[in-house]
Fold each of these.
Amino acid sequence: MFNSFIKNSRIFNYQRKWLAGDIIAGITVAVMLVPQAMAYALLAGLPPIIGLYASIVPLIIYAFIGSSHQMAVGPAAMVALLISAGVSQMAAPFSADYVSIAITLSLMVGVIQLLMGIFRLGFLTNFISHPVVSGFTSAAAIIILVSQLKSLLGIDAPRSEGLIETIHLLFVNISTINFYSVLLGGISIVILALSKKIHGLIPGALIAVFVTTLATWFFDLKSMGVNIVGEIPTGLPGFSVPSFSWDQIIALLPFAITISLIGFMESYSVAQKYAIKNKYDLYPNQDLVGLGLANVVGSFFKIFPVTGGFGRTAANANAGANTQLAAIITAILIAITLLFLTPLFYYLPKSALAAVIIMAVLSLIDIHEIKHLWKVKKSDLVLLLITVAATWFLGIKEGVIVGVAVSVAWFVYKTSRPHVAILGKLNECEDYRNIKRFKHAKEQDGVLVVRMDAQLYYANATFFKVTIKSILNKTVKKRMIHTIVIDASGINQIDSSAVSVLVTLKEELNKQTINLVFSGVKGPVKDVLKLSEYWDDCCKFLNTHKAVTFAQSNYNNDENDENHISGEKI
């Protein structure tokens, strides 16, 4: 396994021409990550220094194992919100117990992702549909945005997790707004917006932090009620074994699984975008191992769960990153910051960090996807809105669970009631098409041609049988039917339950002197059908036209035969 990791990593096959781009990208991301890491730590209910700790070891670990050349690993807003939702139920935010539990959560997330990678379970993320991910991301982004209004406006209100409760507390305590906090937050937003508009690589977050910190110190805004970060310890994180209890693990497990899946999906989606753009292969299970080890090893150096971030990865790629050496350079610069520069952040106003978070999560609110689903598929839009509502009114963890459950339930419902079409022959050719979509498609004398577009299994076999009999009952009122041809080209799989249902259908049709044959049967389906004694010759036709022609000629030649066309004869 690790030989393939080395083969897929550019770090072990480095070329000198990549160095300049990696250096520039490493510096660019470091400048962006310092304020972001502190802001996301506060969002998670942790001291700012934990965010800086989480920006060193995980970056180095992933650099040597991950398959993405551009992905920037580190703290992320979505994961921070999930940490806050889970850990705040067990300890008070910013307390020593809270920090300890968050570190334990990092270890758990890492172990889950590591095991998923080792056992090649990356496909499990496919069960979380895109509308669910988009709905959860947009809903969580709104929750994050609203939660930061307290710090942005300098409102003195208790910390809360639910959207409705947070909005209520904001209105109740609206009279405690601090004008100077609003001013500093507003200046930060303007700087961030202008820097992004002028050029994406301008370090707007660092400029905003520098300007507002300087203003807070120069005008002594702390004495005027502005909340500041305060003292940040100097020095690198020391090695320590995470402490935990089994009760904590059981309580944290739902959040650990959610963070593992959502974090990986966020990472892999952005990594895939730049892998396609830069024309190289990405290996999901290798990335799971990389992220897993980043969190596991990092947990021994006081980190909270990390993942790949959209904004930082984009900045990393746009700055010219060619390999994960850029991430190692970023980690080194964060380490230098911890060793020598943390006293400079003492007067950093929390309203500025709130602005950094707000501007970062605005891009996660996917209005375009809502418009797209309204136009393309409204059932998926309903799924998205259900996920949004569940996340807002039930909770973060519950939002994901409800979204996935409804998504799977909808999938089961749709596959249990598959699309069944009546086919007719197109003029002057041998093609058969849905008569509802092709007006020139004509049904053939004495033959009913039906196509099913789904796998045939226990959940939909009875529905298929009932549908066939319903179509037959409506059709025989118009014309005499002696053969039903099932175009099986759309059936990829079949199980034993479905075979039993088809045998029953065939026997019932034979009593009505109607024969049942199949055309276009695929190999895997034919292999299963051949195991039944009733299906020796009924699925030998390669295409529908041959089945219809054969059925008509045999009926005409043997018109007075009791069964018209026997299954054995065909």
Note: The first helix runs from residue 2 to 8.
Amino acid sequence: GLNVGDYYKKEVSVTINNSQVTNVFEASSGNWSNTSNWSLNRLPISNDNVSIPSGKIANLDVSNVSIDDLDVVGALNVNSGKSITVTGNLTTTGTVSINSNATSSGSIIVNGTSTGNISYNRYIKDNANWYLVSSPVENQDIDAFVSATSTLVTSGSKRGLATYDNVNQNWNYYLNGSSTSGNFTIGDGYIIKLSAAGNVTFTGTLKTDNLSKNVTQGNNGWNLIGNSYPSFINVNSPANNTNNILDLSSNFSILETGFKAIYIWDTVSQSYKPVNNASDAKFLAPGQAYFVRVNANGNVVLNENMQSHQAGDHFLRSNSNRFEIKLIAKKGDLEKNTDVKYIKGTTTGLDEGYDAGLFNADGASFAVYTHLISESEGTNYALQALPNNNYSSMIVPVGLNAKKDDKITFSADIKNTPIGVKVYLEDKVKNEFKRLDNLEDLYEFTLSDDVNGVGRFYIHTSSKALSVNSQVTESSIKIFNTDNNTLKIVGLNSHEATLKLISVLGNEVFKTKLKNNNNQEIVLPKLSEGVYFVQVKTELEEINKKIILK
């Protein structure tokens, strides 16, 4: 029979109604965090719809706010360093402005759809440097942007805004009087320079889907692209171990071997520095551009789920306890540096996503870098990851590009030195070892010749005190074939050296004397394809290497 009690229980269960409410901003102007400014006399919560009516101005002064729908007829200002996630839809017929300053950026993430325009005020720190920027909105007209940015520098007919052309390997500057430039292409990067610190404003629609940014190989593989969202983007595994630019497999595979990183402009060293999985947690700020080097035409993808909110400076400080060496070379006011990081699980050879080559699209005449300890193919590295053990067995070749009569000063910024380990710079020309692991340690010298490459300087991490009489086990001489008929020999410091090329059958096919020179190229005769052995013999040692001529 019918159980009346059951029937009533069912009746009760279907009448519960958890409807959403709209929390309306009622003050004429004021802070989001003030409960009395809201119609419900409480701050908006995650399942609230929020309305900011005509004539009302709300200033978002808190971080990591999450709401459902947001309807702005009046005005919403997102303060620098503050952030909001709209899990539903954003509708703007009024104004939404997101602000940034010298140390932080406001951010907004919209999971649903976005209708209407928003404005992003991107702060440029000073007038002495170029900065890399991209538009964090769609449909911003370039001509309107230039005419609204009165502080954009001018040089002749050129303005301080340019894109990078990897076919001609130069910058294309915006020209005075241009009037048909169209809109910023979402995901394109630009360099910008102002005559005074301040904001540049991008106004347009907010992107709420993935960005698939076209990249081309051109003549050098370098592409300047940018963050297309008004929020932060996770760059590497330490930032977010699943949703980040570098670990997306399609991005990783299109990046050039040895250059699986993004490259950001460092105003201190006036150079492009790599960020990869050996770096600390890194996030692209809204409106920030970066270089990548690719091995084919294709796309670099930014997914919506790579977005995040970050407080504080765009680039977070290191919080790791790893042994790290930043070798610094100074020439007058110019400072360049290269990083060696000792990370568990990496090798002395190429670790893709952890080693990163030196940015080389700008032809800098002054540079410092390292080569891989083993299996070096002659690539210059700005960041090298090495195992965190057997320090004494690892000798890192250091490269320097500088001119005759340059006065160079080497120093090092070293973190978390293992107990008992000392850090030395070896100079094979001056035949000396110089400690680098005390803060006041400097090594100064004046170049008697142009230098361009490795072979003279080496970093040693040793538990023993090193001097020129120390027995160094691994040879500092390296051999690699740069192309089919050229051999490169680096690190030679001997008056009595010969080079032989021996076929796989044991026949000597080529022999020559070598100069006492740290960096030299040997042009080979025309030889048939196949495997050969290179033998370099000095009065102290013999080095053999297998090469393949194609």
Note: DSSP finds three helices and 46 strands in the chain.
